[in-house]
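Whiteboard transcription, Tuesday session. T.W. wrote the structure tokens on the left side:
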């Protein structure tokens, strides 16, 4: 039986002098967090917010954001996190789409909409309230049309997702390095997993990709847990942060396909730290499958996304992964289909199953590229590139039928003939990039995932290969260099 509300996992810890949240400017004990979130709840209810009504939490990645989230939950309302680091137009787009009347905000932030009733998170009047509502939060995904798509998660689904973490992971959270935007659901994992464990949420910076701050915070606080997208974790390891991260007992990578080379790099530099590859759409409350990585995964073609988490069921229908779980988002924001009497969410992700039951991710069903009359997943090409000798991380851009591979190399020089041989062995000829470009780093979105839109633009701007060279990946032409955009 799973808990029916996330507050039943968190509220028992909201007392005492243990540090609950520490950011770059200060810290809050669990007693502080309990008092301040109760004040938020009272202020939200005084503002006339009904149970289940959306309330904006407009803040940077900070301790005040967590105060706001908990306060809205304790008011029985549904919080909508808006990261102050996002472009202003995107912040206002989220605010308008939410339909909220009230906003919790930090000092110095721009007004999102003049008709919103503001409540200052740092100037809360005395008061206490406690009202458990049915909903927890709404966050936005990009949507297929480019318009933000709301995904609303219930308090019970969030409780299940968190309780499943407590059941699956053996190492208790002592200190969690939170490096995810509050507007993305990956932050949910770290916040509630930690608070339900009585640990400390450690916030290195308001910018999730600030690896300098990550290293500084790790040295000062000796964290036990970290969650990053694979591309950012790869940069952290190559950037010399492994020594700062040696106290970690658990590293979780999620949000992108995990390349085998990253697993090898992890165990070479942090052999005493367990590594997990999580998979889960926003619509499944952060995660739904998980794989504990082993050194052997470094030699495989792809790293599994593993097996369903406790309480979750999966089905493969026409090669597409379907998920049934207590963590499914609200039906009015997520379409469901019934299979054998059970509600499932169709993820759109192409997945196969190994003989041992482990699931293998092969990319999006709607992210196919048409090359030479055939269709192939962008992720499949990127897997092959990342598995090439001397390549640490890779992604591809597409422009006008012209496929370009962007490579972050593990060494200064790359044996392009070895890369060519590997690609010829791994991919059909039509799927081989016409050009390979070396970059310092891959462009990323605010959530840390690779920005394929930027790579498509770079592919369109890339100088064509010289006629005497031919397509680089096919004939062993030159490996170009391209400065990283920071």
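and on the right, the sequence the group agreed on:
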């Amino acid at each position: 039986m799973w808990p029916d509300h996330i507050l039943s996992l968190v509220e028992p810890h909201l007392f005492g002098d243990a540090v609950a949240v520490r950011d770059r400017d200060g810290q809050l004990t669990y007693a502080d967090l309990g008092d301040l979130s109760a004040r938020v709840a009272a202020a939200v209810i005084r503002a006339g917010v009904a149970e289940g009504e959306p309330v904006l939490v407009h803040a940077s990645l900070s301790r005040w954001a967590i105060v706001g989230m908990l306060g809205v939950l304790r008011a029985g309302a549904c919080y909508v996190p808006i990261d102050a680091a996002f472009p202003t137009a995107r912040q206002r787009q989220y605010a308008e789409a939410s339909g909220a009347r009230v906003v919790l905000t930090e000092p110095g932030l721009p007004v999102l909409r003049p008709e919103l009733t503001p409540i200052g998170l740092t100037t809360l009047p005395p008061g206490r309230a406690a009202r458990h509502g049915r909903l927890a939060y709404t966050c936005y995904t990009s949507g297929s049309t480019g318009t933000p798509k709301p995904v609303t998660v219930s308090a019970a689904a969030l409780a299940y997702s968190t309780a499943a973490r407590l059941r699956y992971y053996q190492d208790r959270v002592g200190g969690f390095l939170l490096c995810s935007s509050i507007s993305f659901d990956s932050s949910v994992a770290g916040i509630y997993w930690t608070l339900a464990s009585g640990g400390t949420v450690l916030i290195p910076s308001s910018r999730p990709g600030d690896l300098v701050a990550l290293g500084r915070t790790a040295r000062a606080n000796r964290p036990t847990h970290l969650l990053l997208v694979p591309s950012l974790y790869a940069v952290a390891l190559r950037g010399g942060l492994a020594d700062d991260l040696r106290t970690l007992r658990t590293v979780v990578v999620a949000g992108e396909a995990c390349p085998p080379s990253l697993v090898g790099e992890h165990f070479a530099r942090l052999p005493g730290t367990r590594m997990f590859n999580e998979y889960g759409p926003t619509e499944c409350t952060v995660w739904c499958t998980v794989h504990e990585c082993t050194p052997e995964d470094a030699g495989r073609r792809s790293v599994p996304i593993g097996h369903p988490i406790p309480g979750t069921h999966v089905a493969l229908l026409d090669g597409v992964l379907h998920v049934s779980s207590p963590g499914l988002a609200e039906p009015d924001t997520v379409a469901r289909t019934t299979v054998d009497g059970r509600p499932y969410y169709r993820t759109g992700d192409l997945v196969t199953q190994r003989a041992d039951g482990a699931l293998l991710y092969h990319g999006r069903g709607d992210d196919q590229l048409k090359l030479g009359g055939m269709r192939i997943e962008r992720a499949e090409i990127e897997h092959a590139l990342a598995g090439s000798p001397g390549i640490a991380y890779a992604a591809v851009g597409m422009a006008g039928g012209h496929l370009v591979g962007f490579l972050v190399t593990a060494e200064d020089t790359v044996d392009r003939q070895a890369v060519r041989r590997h690609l010829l062995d791994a991919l059909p000829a039509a799927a081989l990039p016409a050009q390979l470009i070396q970059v310092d780093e891959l462009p990323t979105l605010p959530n840390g995932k690779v920005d394929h839109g930027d790579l498509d633009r770079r592919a369109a701007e890339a100088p064509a290969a010289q006629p005497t060279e031919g397509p680089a990946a096919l004939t062993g032409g030159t490996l170009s260099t391209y400065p990283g955009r920071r």
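Someone added at the bottom: Residues 214 and 401 are 39 Å apart (CA to CA).
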